[in-house]
Amino acid sequence: xKKFLSYLWPDTKRYYSEINGTLEVTYIDGKKVxxxxxxNYSYGSLQKILEFGVSEINLKTVENTLILGMGGGSVIQxxxxxxxxxxxxxxxxxxxxxxxxxxxxxxxxxxxxxxxxEEDAFKYVENSNDVFQLIIIDVFVDLNxxxxxxxxxxxxxxxxxxxxxxxxxxxxxxxxxxxxxxxKEIISHFGKNFExxxxxxxxxxxxxxIGKKL
Length: 214
Description:
alpha/beta, Rossmann fold, 7 helices, 11 strands, 35% strand
């Protein structure tokens, strides 16, 4: 009944986060979405954008996946349900309130092959020695990616965690394209060991960089 009513009268719960401000979980058209004040955070347009990126990856070669910026866990849901990915996932999320919402509202919790870490993604890649075949970077605060994630140190630290022939998917922002200085700068930071393709305006909004380590 609740699912049926969501098509007629969307139902919204509000949570307050010290990092992201007001977060809204809305049950609409038969599904829940998580939004910040100005942007979809999980399970709406963002999920479609990251699903496009994942569809470009050969997941058969991926034993270990790192997600930087878990949000409500929509990309985990996509990996598990849409792409039938059953292998290891490590998800890093700085906001404890978002981790709480992911568990309570969307059922995203730790399991045998799924680890959730409360930490700044920038610090995590700086200190980790693990190796992954896929790293998904989706580190928005509201509408923007903090500038530190565009800098050379972050890109270098991500690159050292990627296995040979491994991949990264980097959601770099809204209304950016392959001609922007920002995307060129990020590509240069990853260096010649990566083959990187720019996908401007995925789902008519966000720019994705997809790289393969050579």
